[in-house]
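Protein modeling request. Please complete all fields; requests missing the sequence field cannot be processed.
Requester role: graduate student
Desired output: 3D structure, C-alpha cell encoding
Chains: 1
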Amino acid sequence: MSGPAVASAAGNGPVGGEAIRERTAPTTLEVLRRLDSGPRGLMEVQAEERLTRFGENTLPTRRPDSWLGRFLRSLRDPFTAVLLCLALVSALVASWGTAGVIMVLVVVSCVLRSSGEHRAEGVMTTLRALVATTATVLRRADEDAPSVAREIPVDQLVPGDVIRLGPGDLVPADIRLLRAGGLSLYQAALTGESAPVAKYPVDAPPPVAGGIFEQPQLCFQGSSVAAGSGTAVVLATGPRTRLADRYEERGHREANAFDRSVHGISWILIRFMLLTPPLVLMANAALRDRGLETLPFAVAVAVGLTPEMLPVIVTTCLARGASLLARSHGVIVKRLPALHDLGAVDVLCLDKTGTLTLDRPVVDRALDAEGKDTPEALHWASVNAWWTLQLADLPTPDAFDEAILEAAGVDAAERYDGTAAIPFDPVRRLATAVVRTPGRLGTHILVVKGAVESVLERCVLEDRERERLLALAAEQADSGLRVLAVATAERHARTRDYTPADERGLTFRGFVTLRDALVPTAADALKALADRGVTVKVLTGDHPGTAARVCRDLGLAPGDVRIAGDIDTLADTELTELARRTTVFARCTPQHKARITTALRAGGHTTGFLGDGVNDLPALHAADVGICPRDAVNVTRESADVVLADKDLTAIDHAITAGRYSSGNIATYLHTTLSSNLGNVIAMLAAGLLLPFLPMLPTQVLVQNLCFDAAQLAYAYDRPARNALRRPTVLRPRDLLRFITGFGVLNATADLATFGVLALALHGPGTGDDEAVFHSGWFTENLLTQALVMLLLRLGRRGAEVRTSGPVGRAAAVLAAAGLLLPLSPLAPLLGMAPLPGLYYPLLAVVLALYAAALRVARARYERQ
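Delivered output (865 residues):
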C-alpha cells in the first residue's frame, strides 16, 4: 500500500483522525483495505515501516524546563523586576551596599522558586513512568505465517494493527471494532458520562446522528474497558487521535489570581517609588538648599519603601507549604503560585464522576409493579446476574451485575441449577439466564433482565398497564436512578438451544433501581469546604437527574439544575449571573465547562477546577488553578497546576488549607511591611523639611531595613489564626492600598511624636552630638515600632490571640533588642550613632504605649469595615 494511502487511512482521510468526524463512515471492509490490513493483523515488516513513517504512538507533551530556564523565567516576576531596577539605581549613585543586598535577595528568591518547581517536575516524571504501557496485538512474521498475539509497548502501535481488548484494558489508540462480545467502555475521561457505554461492530454505519463518541463501532484513546472483550483495528495513533486533538484545543491560559494580585501590588509600589525620590530632592533643594548630595538618601528612602524581602518571603512561604503538602498528603504543587491561588479559591468546579461518586453503581431499591419495595425483583435479578456470569464463554460481569450480586448475595442464586444463558446484546438490551429448580424436573425458568422498554415489550401486559409501568420507570429515572426491569417465564425443559425468540410471553417481576456509589469522604469534605467559604459547582456530562440525585444524597442542594446546552444562546454577562446562582450544570461539553469557569472568574471569583479527563482540559486552563488526581490521563496531568495523590475532596481541603496558611503569611507580611515602610517614608520627608541635617544616614537606612527584613523571615514559619483560614485569602491591591495608607499615617504620627520626644531629651545635660543622638533615637524607635507592628497586625488575630510566642514573637523580640542595643554597641560610631540620654527611654515608652493602643483601635475598626 502506498504511503499517502496509509496516511489517509490513519489520520487525514476517510477512516481515522479527521475522517472519523465525517457524516458518513466507510464499511469495515473499506477500512481494512485502506489500511492495507486484515483480521490477521500486520506483518512485522509493515509495522516497522509504518512506525518509521508515522512515529511512536505518544501524545504531544511539553518539554520540561531546565533548572536554569526556570531560574531565568523567575526573573520576570514583577516583584523581582522592581528590586532589579532599585539595585541598578543604587549602583548608579554608588550605593554599593544597598545594591549588593538587593541582588543577594533577588538571587535567593529565584533559586528557591526554581528549585521547588524543578523538584515538582521530577515527581511528575516519576508519575509518567507508572502508566500502563502495553497492548495485545496480532502480528505475523510474513504473508503466510499465522497470527501471533503478543504484548508490545503502546508507543509501538501503528495504524492497521489489530489489537485485542479485555476487561480493565485502556484503549491504546483510536480504533474500529471488528468483533465484540458484551463490550462496554468507560468514556468519562472523554465525555464525562459515568455509565459504561455499549460498543459493538457495525459493518456499514449509518450517517452520524449524534456526537462522534456515540458511534458504537468506534473506540477512542483515553477510554477503558468496563466489561466484555473485543478485537479492533487501529485507525489513528499519537498526534492524530481525538485525545491529541483535545490536548491541542486546551487554549491559552489567562493570568491567574496570583498574577493579577502581583501586578496590581507591583504597580502600587512602582508609583510610590517613582514619586518618592523626586519629592525628597525637590524638598531638600527648595527648603534646605541641598543639591545632588541628597540623591543617595533619596534612593535609600525609595529602597526603604520597598519590601525587599517580598520575593524571598513569598517564595519561602509557597515552597514550604508545597513541601509540607507533598510530604503529608501526597499533593504535588507543580507551579508555586498555584498554592496562593488555592488559598484564594472561593468557587470549586468539579465533575461528579470519581469525585463525588465512585466509578460503579449500587442498588438503591427493588420495586414491584405498584412502586412498593419488594425482595422478589432483586432475587430474580441476582439469579440472572449469577448464572449469565457462570454460563458465559468469557465471564465478564458488568458493573450492574456486580452491584446486584453485592446487594443480594449469591446464596439464593445458587439454589438453582443453571442450564443455559443468552448473553447481553446491546441491540436487544437484554440478558437471559435459563435455570432449573432442584426437584422440579421438566420445567425451566427463563429469567430476563435488561432495559425497561425491552423487557416490558416482551411481557404479557395490556397496553395501559405497560404505559403505566413505563411512566413509573421514567419517574425513577428522572429522580437520578438507573432502572432495570426483571421478568420470568416457565418453559418445558428441552435439550435444544435457547434463542432470543424464546424471550416472549414473560411475567413482569419488578424493577431494580441503581444509583452511583458515593465517595465515602465526599459529604464530610463538602461540608468542610463550605465552612471554609468555598462554593462547589458541579459541571458534568451526565444526566441532570443523576447529578441532582448525587448532590442531594451528599447534602449539597442542587437547586435549579441547568442543561449546559441552554447556555449557548446566553451572552457572557448573562452567563456570569446564571453561573453565580446555579450549582449543577448537566450534559456539559468541554467547551461548556470552560465557558462556565470563565464566567465565574469574570464575576470576580477565584476558581479552581478538578478534572481527570481530556474533556476537562479547556476548563483546567480557564480556571485560576487546575487540579487533577495522580491517575488522570497524561495530558491532563501535564496541564494541571496541582496533582492529588487521590481524587478525593479531602485532599483538596488540605491543599486549600495549606494555600491559606501560605497566603495568610504573605498577606500579613505585605500589610505590616508596607504600612510600616510608608510611615517611615512620610516621617523622613517631614524630618527632611524640619531638620537642618538628614534625618537618617543612607547606611542607617540600610541597616534598619536589613534588621527588619531578617526579622520578617519569621512570617514564612508562622501559623495564622484559625479565623484567617475560614475565608479565602486574596491579595486585593485596592484593599491593601487602603490598609497601608491608614496604618502608614498612624506609624508616621508615632515617628513625629518621637521627634518631639527627642527634642525634649536633647535639651538635657550630656547629650553630645545632636545629629548622632537624633539618628540613634529615631533608629531605636523605628525598630521598636516595627516590632510592635509585627505582633499587632498579624491577620486574623484578635485580643488574646495576639501571642508573643512562636517564630514571629521571637523575631520581634530580637528586633526590639537590636534597636535598643545597637546605639550602645561598639558598632555605633561606625554607623554614625551615639548613646541616648536616659530621659529618652521613659518618654519613648509612653509614645510606644500610645501607639500600641492606637494600633489596636484602628485594627478593630478596620476589621469591622
